[in-house]
Amino acid sequence: MSVILVTGSYDHEIRFWEAWSGICSRTISRTGETGQVNRLAISPDKRLLAAAIHKKVNIYEIASPSNEPLVSFESHTMNVSAVAFHSEGKWLVTASEDGTIKIWDLRTSTLHRTYDNGAPVNDVIVHPNQGELISCDQAGSIKQWDLTDNICSHELTPAGDVPIRSVSLAADGTCLVAGNNKGQCYVWKVNDENSNLPRFQAVTRFQAHSKYLTRCLLSPDARYLATCSADTSVKIWLIGPNYDFRLDRVLVGHQRWVWDCAFSADSAYLVTASSDHTARLWEMASGETVRQYNGHHKAAVCCALHDGAS
Protein backbone atom coordinates (compact mmCIF):
# COMPACT_ATOMS: atom_id res chain seq x y z
CA MET A 1 0.00 0.00 0.00
CA SER A 2 1.41 3.38 -0.98
CA VAL A 3 -0.69 5.21 1.63
CA ILE A 4 -1.28 3.74 5.09
CA LEU A 5 -3.78 5.57 7.25
CA VAL A 6 -4.79 4.13 10.62
CA THR A 7 -6.98 5.35 13.47
CA GLY A 8 -7.54 4.07 16.99
CA SER A 9 -10.44 4.61 19.31
CA TYR A 10 -11.97 4.16 22.75
CA ASP A 11 -14.25 1.64 21.03
CA HIS A 12 -11.21 -0.74 21.18
CA GLU A 13 -10.98 -0.85 17.38
CA ILE A 14 -8.11 -0.06 15.04
CA ARG A 15 -9.23 0.91 11.54
CA PHE A 16 -7.26 1.06 8.31
CA TRP A 17 -8.62 3.49 5.71
CA GLU A 18 -8.33 4.05 1.98
CA ALA A 19 -7.23 7.65 2.29
CA TRP A 20 -8.86 9.06 -0.83
CA SER A 21 -12.12 7.08 -0.92
CA GLY A 22 -12.73 7.21 2.83
CA ILE A 23 -13.54 3.48 2.85
CA CYS A 24 -12.48 1.42 5.86
CA SER A 25 -10.44 -1.41 4.35
CA ARG A 26 -9.70 -3.37 7.52
CA THR A 27 -10.71 -3.38 11.17
CA ILE A 28 -8.78 -4.95 14.01
CA SER A 29 -11.45 -5.70 16.59
CA ARG A 30 -10.03 -6.79 19.87
CA THR A 31 -13.10 -8.64 21.10
CA GLY A 32 -12.88 -9.50 24.78
CA GLU A 33 -9.79 -7.36 25.36
CA THR A 34 -9.94 -4.39 27.70
CA GLY A 35 -8.34 -1.01 27.25
CA GLN A 36 -8.64 1.72 24.67
CA VAL A 37 -6.13 2.39 21.91
CA ASN A 38 -3.98 5.33 23.04
CA ARG A 39 -1.33 5.85 20.34
CA LEU A 40 -0.32 4.42 16.97
CA ALA A 41 2.94 4.37 14.99
CA ILE A 42 3.80 2.90 11.58
CA SER A 43 7.30 1.52 11.01
CA PRO A 44 9.44 3.36 8.44
CA ASP A 45 9.31 0.35 6.07
CA LYS A 46 5.48 0.24 6.33
CA ARG A 47 5.62 -3.34 7.57
CA LEU A 48 4.55 -2.96 11.19
CA LEU A 49 1.96 -1.07 13.21
CA ALA A 50 2.61 -0.42 16.89
CA ALA A 51 -0.55 0.14 18.92
CA ALA A 52 -0.43 1.33 22.53
CA ILE A 53 -3.41 -0.38 24.14
CA HIS A 54 -3.86 0.46 27.82
CA LYS A 55 -0.77 -1.01 29.57
CA LYS A 56 0.67 -2.95 26.62
CA VAL A 57 1.87 -2.44 23.07
CA ASN A 58 0.74 -4.75 20.27
CA ILE A 59 2.82 -5.07 17.10
CA TYR A 60 0.71 -5.95 14.05
CA GLU A 61 1.84 -6.91 10.57
CA ILE A 62 0.21 -4.38 8.26
CA ALA A 63 0.05 -6.69 5.21
CA SER A 64 -1.50 -9.52 7.20
CA PRO A 65 -5.30 -9.87 7.52
CA SER A 66 -4.90 -11.35 11.00
CA ASN A 67 -6.25 -9.60 14.08
CA GLU A 68 -3.59 -11.30 16.16
CA PRO A 69 -0.44 -9.30 16.94
CA LEU A 70 2.99 -10.59 16.00
CA VAL A 71 4.10 -9.80 19.54
CA SER A 72 2.86 -7.94 22.62
CA PHE A 73 5.11 -5.93 24.92
CA GLU A 74 3.70 -6.00 28.43
CA SER A 75 6.14 -4.51 30.94
CA HIS A 76 4.43 -1.16 31.64
CA THR A 77 2.19 -1.01 34.71
CA MET A 78 -0.02 1.91 33.64
CA ASN A 79 -1.37 3.47 30.43
CA VAL A 80 1.13 3.60 27.55
CA SER A 81 1.08 7.19 26.34
CA ALA A 82 3.51 7.18 23.38
CA VAL A 83 5.18 4.89 20.84
CA ALA A 84 7.87 5.65 18.22
CA PHE A 85 10.00 3.57 15.85
CA HIS A 86 13.72 3.75 15.22
CA SER A 87 14.38 4.98 11.65
CA GLU A 88 15.57 1.54 10.51
CA GLY A 89 12.91 -0.32 12.48
CA LYS A 90 15.42 -2.01 14.78
CA TRP A 91 13.79 -0.86 18.00
CA LEU A 92 10.69 0.76 19.42
CA VAL A 93 10.45 3.27 22.25
CA THR A 94 7.40 3.45 24.52
CA ALA A 95 6.44 5.82 27.32
CA SER A 96 3.89 5.43 30.06
CA GLU A 97 1.98 7.05 32.88
CA ASP A 98 3.96 4.67 35.12
CA GLY A 99 6.88 7.13 34.81
CA THR A 100 9.09 4.95 32.63
CA ILE A 101 10.44 5.01 29.09
CA LYS A 102 11.28 1.64 27.58
CA ILE A 103 13.24 0.55 24.51
CA TRP A 104 12.25 -2.74 22.88
CA ASP A 105 14.41 -4.72 20.48
CA LEU A 106 12.14 -5.60 17.54
CA ARG A 107 14.58 -8.20 16.22
CA THR A 108 14.47 -10.27 19.41
CA SER A 109 11.11 -9.02 20.79
CA THR A 110 12.73 -8.28 24.14
CA LEU A 111 12.96 -5.34 26.51
CA HIS A 112 16.34 -3.73 25.96
CA ARG A 113 16.40 -0.80 28.38
CA THR A 114 14.26 1.14 30.89
CA TYR A 115 14.66 4.79 31.90
CA ASP A 116 13.03 6.09 35.08
CA ASN A 117 11.55 9.49 34.25
CA GLY A 118 10.28 10.12 37.78
CA ALA A 119 6.87 11.40 36.66
CA PRO A 120 4.10 10.18 34.30
CA VAL A 121 5.33 10.54 30.71
CA ASN A 122 2.95 12.14 28.20
CA ASP A 123 5.00 11.92 25.01
CA VAL A 124 8.35 10.70 23.67
CA ILE A 125 10.02 11.16 20.30
CA VAL A 126 13.20 9.82 18.69
CA HIS A 127 15.74 12.46 17.72
CA PRO A 128 16.57 12.40 13.96
CA ASN A 129 20.12 11.37 14.91
CA GLN A 130 18.61 8.16 16.38
CA GLY A 131 20.93 8.47 19.38
CA GLU A 132 18.70 10.53 21.65
CA LEU A 133 15.11 10.63 22.88
CA ILE A 134 13.09 13.64 23.97
CA SER A 135 10.24 13.16 26.44
CA CYS A 136 7.78 15.38 28.27
CA ASP A 137 5.86 14.71 31.43
CA GLN A 138 3.12 15.51 33.90
CA ALA A 139 5.55 17.32 36.22
CA GLY A 140 6.29 19.96 33.56
CA SER A 141 9.68 18.67 32.40
CA ILE A 142 11.14 18.06 28.97
CA LYS A 143 14.08 15.67 29.07
CA GLN A 144 16.68 14.59 26.55
CA TRP A 145 17.94 11.03 26.98
CA ASP A 146 21.32 10.03 25.61
CA LEU A 147 21.11 6.43 24.38
CA THR A 148 24.88 6.01 24.28
CA ASP A 149 25.64 7.20 27.79
CA ASN A 150 22.26 6.04 29.21
CA ILE A 151 21.60 9.31 30.99
CA CYS A 152 19.23 12.24 30.99
CA SER A 153 21.62 14.81 29.48
CA HIS A 154 19.34 17.88 29.50
CA GLU A 155 16.17 18.98 31.28
CA LEU A 156 13.88 21.94 30.56
CA THR A 157 11.01 23.20 32.75
CA PRO A 158 9.50 26.05 30.71
CA ALA A 159 6.36 26.63 32.80
CA GLY A 160 7.21 25.27 36.22
CA ASP A 161 5.03 22.30 37.12
CA VAL A 162 2.42 22.83 34.36
CA PRO A 163 2.20 19.44 32.59
CA ILE A 164 3.79 19.30 29.14
CA ARG A 165 1.45 17.37 26.87
CA SER A 166 3.31 17.02 23.57
CA VAL A 167 6.73 17.55 21.98
CA SER A 168 7.82 17.75 18.34
CA LEU A 169 11.25 18.08 16.75
CA ALA A 170 12.02 19.33 13.24
CA ALA A 171 13.27 16.70 10.81
CA ASP A 172 16.71 18.32 10.78
CA GLY A 173 16.79 18.39 14.59
CA THR A 174 17.19 22.19 14.84
CA CYS A 175 13.82 23.23 16.31
CA LEU A 176 11.94 21.81 19.31
CA VAL A 177 8.33 22.70 20.12
CA ALA A 178 6.41 21.71 23.24
CA GLY A 179 2.77 22.31 24.19
CA ASN A 180 1.26 22.30 27.67
CA ASN A 181 -2.05 21.85 29.49
CA LYS A 182 -2.75 25.58 29.39
CA GLY A 183 -2.60 25.77 25.60
CA GLN A 184 0.85 27.39 25.50
CA CYS A 185 3.61 26.48 23.06
CA TYR A 186 7.33 26.87 23.77
CA VAL A 187 10.02 26.92 21.07
CA TRP A 188 13.75 26.23 21.30
CA LYS A 189 16.52 26.37 18.75
CA VAL A 190 18.54 23.17 19.14
CA ASN A 191 22.25 23.79 18.69
CA ASP A 192 24.86 21.21 17.79
CA GLU A 193 26.19 19.49 20.88
CA ASN A 194 29.74 20.41 19.83
CA SER A 195 28.99 24.14 19.61
CA ASN A 196 29.75 26.65 22.37
CA LEU A 197 26.08 27.63 22.57
CA PRO A 198 23.55 26.02 24.92
CA ARG A 199 22.05 22.85 23.45
CA PHE A 200 18.52 24.24 23.86
CA GLN A 201 18.20 27.96 23.25
CA ALA A 202 14.77 29.38 24.13
CA VAL A 203 13.39 31.37 21.21
CA THR A 204 9.74 32.17 21.83
CA ARG A 205 6.50 31.13 23.45
CA PHE A 206 2.92 31.85 22.43
CA GLN A 207 -0.65 31.09 23.43
CA ALA A 208 -1.82 28.56 20.83
CA HIS A 209 -5.21 27.72 22.38
CA SER A 210 -7.28 29.03 25.25
CA LYS A 211 -7.96 25.47 26.38
CA TYR A 212 -6.03 22.24 26.95
CA LEU A 213 -3.54 21.43 24.16
CA THR A 214 -3.43 17.76 23.17
CA ARG A 215 -0.83 17.62 20.39
CA CYS A 216 1.73 19.82 18.66
CA LEU A 217 3.39 18.59 15.48
CA LEU A 218 5.94 20.11 13.11
CA SER A 219 5.43 19.31 9.43
CA PRO A 220 8.11 17.27 7.61
CA ASP A 221 9.25 20.37 5.70
CA ALA A 222 9.27 22.42 8.97
CA ARG A 223 7.10 25.12 7.37
CA TYR A 224 4.09 24.47 9.60
CA LEU A 225 3.21 23.66 13.18
CA ALA A 226 -0.15 22.00 13.81
CA THR A 227 -1.70 22.27 17.27
CA CYS A 228 -4.75 20.29 18.45
CA SER A 229 -6.93 21.20 21.37
CA ALA A 230 -9.91 20.62 23.62
CA ASP A 231 -11.45 23.71 21.96
CA THR A 232 -12.38 21.43 18.96
CA SER A 233 -10.04 23.28 16.59
CA VAL A 234 -6.76 22.56 14.86
CA LYS A 235 -4.53 25.56 14.29
CA ILE A 236 -1.86 25.81 11.62
CA TRP A 237 1.09 28.09 12.33
CA LEU A 238 3.54 29.32 9.69
CA ILE A 239 7.15 29.19 10.83
CA GLY A 240 9.34 32.12 9.82
CA PRO A 241 13.12 32.12 9.25
CA ASN A 242 13.76 33.46 12.77
CA TYR A 243 11.51 30.89 14.46
CA ASP A 244 8.60 33.33 14.57
CA PHE A 245 5.22 31.56 14.54
CA ARG A 246 2.28 33.22 12.80
CA LEU A 247 -1.25 31.80 12.81
CA ASP A 248 -1.97 30.80 9.21
CA ARG A 249 -5.42 29.23 9.52
CA VAL A 250 -7.83 27.49 11.88
CA LEU A 251 -9.20 24.13 10.76
CA VAL A 252 -12.83 24.04 11.88
CA GLY A 253 -15.14 21.05 11.54
CA HIS A 254 -14.63 18.66 14.44
CA GLN A 255 -17.38 18.83 17.05
CA ARG A 256 -15.38 17.73 20.09
CA TRP A 257 -11.82 17.50 21.40
CA VAL A 258 -9.15 16.92 18.73
CA TRP A 259 -6.62 14.46 20.14
CA ASP A 260 -4.06 13.68 17.48
CA CYS A 261 -2.77 14.64 14.04
CA ALA A 262 -0.37 13.40 11.37
CA PHE A 263 1.11 15.14 8.31
CA SER A 264 1.54 13.65 4.86
CA ALA A 265 5.15 13.22 3.74
CA ASP A 266 4.95 16.30 1.48
CA SER A 267 3.32 18.42 4.24
CA ALA A 268 0.35 19.11 1.93
CA TYR A 269 -2.25 17.23 4.01
CA LEU A 270 -3.04 16.69 7.67
CA VAL A 271 -5.06 13.91 9.30
CA THR A 272 -6.81 14.54 12.64
CA ALA A 273 -8.65 12.33 15.14
CA SER A 274 -11.42 13.57 17.40
CA SER A 275 -13.78 12.68 20.24
CA ASP A 276 -16.63 13.23 17.76
CA HIS A 277 -15.85 9.64 16.58
CA THR A 278 -14.39 10.80 13.25
CA ALA A 279 -11.04 11.42 11.60
CA ARG A 280 -10.58 14.04 8.92
CA LEU A 281 -8.16 14.67 6.07
CA TRP A 282 -7.43 18.37 5.56
CA GLU A 283 -5.81 20.08 2.60
CA MET A 284 -3.25 22.51 3.95
CA ALA A 285 -3.47 24.94 1.02
CA SER A 286 -7.21 25.55 1.40
CA GLY A 287 -7.81 24.57 5.03
CA GLU A 288 -10.77 22.48 3.88
CA THR A 289 -11.76 18.94 4.85
CA VAL A 290 -11.29 16.77 1.75
CA ARG A 291 -12.33 13.49 3.40
CA GLN A 292 -14.07 12.40 6.60
CA TYR A 293 -13.60 8.91 8.02
CA ASN A 294 -16.70 7.56 9.77
CA GLY A 295 -16.95 4.21 11.52
CA HIS A 296 -15.70 4.45 15.08
CA HIS A 297 -18.40 4.21 17.76
CA LYS A 298 -16.52 6.19 20.40
CA ALA A 299 -13.83 8.87 20.53
CA ALA A 300 -11.08 8.55 17.88
CA VAL A 301 -8.00 9.51 19.89
CA CYS A 302 -5.03 8.59 17.72
CA CYS A 303 -4.02 8.39 14.07
CA ALA A 304 -0.98 7.45 12.02
CA LEU A 305 -0.22 8.22 8.37
CA HIS A 306 2.63 6.93 6.20
CA ASP A 307 2.51 7.93 2.54
CA GLY A 308 6.23 8.38 2.00
CA ALA A 309 8.75 6.05 0.41
CA SER A 310 9.24 2.87 2.41
Low-pLDDT runs of 5+ residues are none
Q: What is the makeup of the main sheet?
A: 4 strands, antiparallel
Provide the gyration radius in Å: 18 Å
| Alpha-beta classification | mainly beta
Shape: globular
Which descriptors apply to this entry?
4-stranded antiparallel β-sheet, 28 strands, about 55% strand
Question: What does the model show?
Answer:
The structure is a single chain. This protein is mostly beta strands and about 300 residues long. It is about 0% helix and about 55% strand. A hairpin with a 4-residue loop joins β14 and β15. The mean pLDDT is about 95.
How do you describe this structure in short?
It is found in: Cytoplasm. This protein is mainly beta and 310 residues long. It is 0% helix and 54% strand.
How does the SSE layout of this entry go?
Layout: E1 4-9, E2 13-17, E3 24-29, E4 37-42, E5 48-53, E6 56-61, E7 71-73, E8 80-85, E9 91-96, E10 100-105, E11 110-116, E12 121-126, E13 132-137, E14 142-146, E15 151-156, E16 164-169, E17 175-180, E18 184-190, E19 200-207, E20 213-218, E21 224-229, E22 234-239, E23 245-251, E24 258-263, E25 269-274, E26 279-283, E27 288-293, E28 300-306
Antiparallel strand pairs: 1-2, 1-28, 2-3, 4-5, 5-6, 6-7, 8-9, 9-10, 10-11, 12-13, 13-14, 14-15, 16-17, 17-18, 18-19, 20-21, 21-22, 22-23, 24-25, 25-26, 26-27
